[in-house]
Amino acid sequence: MKYLIIGASSGLGRELAYEYAKNKHDLVLVSRDLRDLAAIKSDLEKKSEIKVEIIELDLNSEPEIEKNLFIERFFNEIDGILFPIGMMFDDDKIGLDQEKMKKLFKANFTSIAFIISKFLNSLSSKQGEIIGFGSIAAYLGRKLNPYYSASKRALESHFESLGFLSKKTNLKIQFYVLGYMDTNLAFGKKLKLPKGSPKKLARIVYKNRNGKFKKIFFPRWWGLVAMILNLVPIKILFFMDKIFK
């Protein structure tokens, strides 16, 4: 089987590549950083004796996506797609520059939905897998990173819709809601809550890949946090913010 991993050069994407390679699956790895991809390809092929293709790609460029991913043989060969990708900006606040806002939505939602729509028919015909990754940040509007949060909320809604589709087709859909992860996005930040291990998550993703549609929180206790956030009236949250700011 062959898997396409969008965002494979670091963090969770890299760990997923190693986990799937360990289980003898060929890979197509996609990232904006071709140098890192080349190093991963060399290492994986030596250790696992699999075939690895690498593609340099900017998800903000629709022409690049169409040219490099929508290839006839890929539609025939790819058995599953994983999207361990996310973009953030340090100055993401209400009123963010319009171009940056567009980049956030393209990288975190629009381009992902676009790629899925193109591969949908071919994956449906072969019990293919589509695995997405959201964020706990999507569960409540925020003063900081509001556009990142909104784009991840859109992505989660899209995967919920795909979950309904999987009931009528052979598709295998999984969606992971992530808390703080020990990746480059959290590097240097002082976090009050523990970070999840990308390597551990990669093992969980591989184990669950053929299951029925699920929304899985990682680390698992973030599910309780999400439930509380959904239950607390927004007026109380605004009041708490006023007190503790």
Would you mind describing this structure in some detail?
By secondary structure, the chain is an alpha/beta fold. It has helices spanning 11-22, 34-48, 62-68, 72-77, 98-124, 146-166, 198-208, 222-231, 234-244; strands at 2-6, 26-31, 52-56, 78-83, 129-135, 172-178, 214-218. The longest helix is centred in the middle third of the chain and has 27 residues, at 98-124. The protein has 9 helices and 7 strands, in the order βαβαβααβαβαβαβαα. Helix 1 (11-22) packs parallel to helix 2 (34-48) and helix 1 packs across helix 7. The chain has one domain (2-244): NAD(P)-binding Rossmann-like Domain (Rossmann fold, 3-Layer(aba) Sandwich). The radius of gyration is 18 Å and the shape is globular.
Describe the structure in brief.
The protein is of the alpha/beta class.
Record the SSE blueprint.
Layout: E1 2-6, H1 11-22, E2 26-31, H2 34-48, E3 52-56, H3 62-68, H4 72-77, E4 78-83, H5 98-124, E5 129-135, H6 146-166, E6 172-178, H7 198-208, E7 214-218, H8 222-231, H9 234-244
Parallel strand pairs: 1-2, 1-4, 2-3, 4-5, 5-6, 6-7
State the distance separating the first and last CA atoms: 51 Å
CATH class, named Alpha Beta
The amount of helix comes to: 40-55%
| Mean pLDDT across residues | 89
The strand line-up of the biggest sheet is 3-2-1-4-5-6-7
Task: List how many beta strands DSSP finds.
Answer: 7
